[in-house]
Specification:
By secondary structure, the chain is of the alpha/beta class. It has helices at residues 46-75, 78-86, 88-103, 115-127, 133-152, 159-169, 173-187, 189-196, 200-210, 217-224, 240-245, 259-266, 272-282, 322-330, 335-346, 362-372, 374-379, 450-458, 462-471; strands at residues 251-254, 287-295, 300-306, 354-360, 381-388, 403-409, 433-437, 477-488. Strands 1-8-2-3-4-5-6-7 form an eight-stranded mixed beta sheet.
Length: 490
């Protein structure tokens, strides 16, 4: 359930009216000490006000949905049927009142849901394009989120982009397709994707909520509530389908670096830019790296580097494929995590060793998935998880002392796939470090590449590089081992 208030939006305090309140008693006493000035209330930005309003609407929509489910359940319960046999007149009046509340435009507006009868009624209403009150409020909440995102992303407020978002809010898919085509003709595919990327989850949620498909609505409601959807937005397929498509037990084999990788690793050290460059050199064909470091304090620590997804094929024989990417987003026990666990065992990393895991994209998701694994967290001391361009915000490490660092280019589509985009009202744990920037040097998908993150951290955002390097300074020392491993599905 989305909370009605958020710590980033402090409530305003209303001043006392003239002659009212505790100060008025001493207002005419010249000997009374002067009252201390009231603390200044921070002004909310336009985006904050829009997000705060969206929270209220989302909460109202979710409450209306729950009310419809409870009313439907009560109306078709066996207790109500039993009472109807005893008091048929009362039961008839109650049934009529409930039906009016569930179907009247001034009530829940066809808000039946939950249970067999409720779900059948909801599906019938969806296919008949009935828009209940809960959906109307949810759509308005998403529309406010889109407006809030446009404050920090001016490209979203251009006429061509507004045509796309307005059509999606109106539920006009044909007009949305025409508008998207016009946006692509105007800016090209990559710039068009970059333009709508800040609100991609909101647009997908609107698509699922306003189409005539009654089985994909869960995606929209989970997104509205700030969760990580476990179904796809088009067909409503559950994440268990991905488990069926990605069943590999995982395998890890030692291998030797090629000439280019060996040259990159020879100059690598404990620096976030260096780690991102190493990940870029590993590529996306199954290679990962385990590093052993003799640290300055005398301890021996390990660093595991995990690259992201290969976009060439839907599936290949490594965990770094598109199926694995969706699986890693929705679940924690994946082929990639199983293969990485076998790598740590095969490498003989001693139990209790301190381990830092750095990953890009799918690699960052897998780093977090490993940190959420109680078995891994109890075997090794996972000190840091550093995710680069990864949607990880919906998951939490098993060890609360694990330092999570998330690096996000706001022109990158992928980090927002966890449902927490720039207009999301949900926050991350206070102990996490999230460093985000708006780098317009690259459009998506180039904005997602490791090189784009490396360039940003070397250039305008070098202060973020220094901040991360300070957090991982315990790993300063001499690299005494760089061992690549090839991960396979089976």
């Amino acid at each position: 359930m989305v909370e009605q208030t958020d710590r980033r939006f402090p409530a305003r305090e209303e001043p006392h009216a003239s002659g009212e309140g505790p100060e008025s008693a001493d207002a005419t006493d010249p000997t009374a000490p002067a009252a201390a000035p009231a603390p200044a209330v921070p002004e909310r930005t336009e985006a904050e006000l829009l997000i705060a309003a969206s929270v209220l609407l989302a909460d109202a929509a979710l409450t209306a949905k729950q009310s419809g489910a409870e009313l439907t359940g009560a109306l078709f319960s066996w207790r109500f049927g039993l009472e109807a046999l005893r008091r048929p007149g009362w039961a008839l009046g109650t049934a009529v009142a409930c039906a009016q509340a569930l179907t009247s435009p001034s009530g829940l507006g066809f808000g039946a849901n939950g249970g067999l009868v409720g779900e059948l009624a909801r599906m019938a209403g969806s296919m008949a394009y009935r828009r209940p009150a809960k959906v109307a409020m949810a759509v308005d909440a998403f529309a406010l989120r889109i407006k809030a995102a446009a404050v920090g992303h001016p490209n979203l407020d251009s006429p061509a982009a507004r045509r796309v978002t307005d059509a999606m809010v109106a539920g006009n898919r044909l007009e949305a397709l025409r508008a998207m085509r016009a946006l692509i003709e105007l800016h090209g595919v990559t710039r068009a994707l970059t333009t709508i990327s800040p609100v991609i989850m909101e647009l997908l949620a609107l698509l699922g909520m306003l189409d005539e498909n009654p089985v994909n609505d869960d995606f929209s409601w989970v997104t509205l509530a700030g969760g990580v959807p476990t179904t796809d937005p088009l067909f409503g397929l559950p994440s268990s389908v991905l488990a069926f498509l990605n069943p590999g037990p995982g395998r890890a084999e030692r291998t030797e670096p090629d000439t280019i990788l060996a040259k990159v690793l020879a100059t690598s050290d404990n620096d976030i830019v260096s780690y991102v460059n190493d990940i870029g050199a590993l590529g996306n064909h199954g290679l990962v790296l385990l590093r052993r470091v003799a640290c300055a304090d005398g301890a021996v620590r390990h660093v595991l580097l995990l690259p992201g997804t290969s976009f060439g094929l839907l599936r290949n024989n490594t965990p770094q494929d598109l199926v694995g990417a969706f699986d890693g987003l929705l679940r924690t026990d994946t082929t990639y995590t199983r293969a990485a666990k076998k790598l740590l065992l095969r490498a003989g990393v001693p139990a209790g060793s301190e381990l830092m895991i750095v990953g890009h994209s799918l690699g960052g998701m897998t780093a977090m998935n490993l940190a959420t694994d109680v078995e891994v967290a109890s075997t090794y001391r996972i000190t840091h998880v550093i995710a680069v361009g990864s949607p990880i915000d919906g998951k939490r490490p098993a060890d609360h002392t694990t330092q999570v660092v998330s690096l996000v280019n706001k022109h990158d589509v992928i980090p927002g796939l966890d449902g927490r985009g720039p207009a999301s009202p949900n926050d991350i744990p206070a102990s996490w470090v999230e460093l985000g920037w708006l780098d317009e040097s690259y459009d998506y998908p180039l904005s997602h590449a490791p090189q784009a993150y490396s360039d940003a951290l070397r250039g305008e955002f070098t202060h973020y590089r220094e901040q991360v390097n300070k957090l991982i300074s315990a790993y300063d020392g001499e690299v005494v081992g760089n061992q690549p491993y090839m991960l396979r599905d089976k």
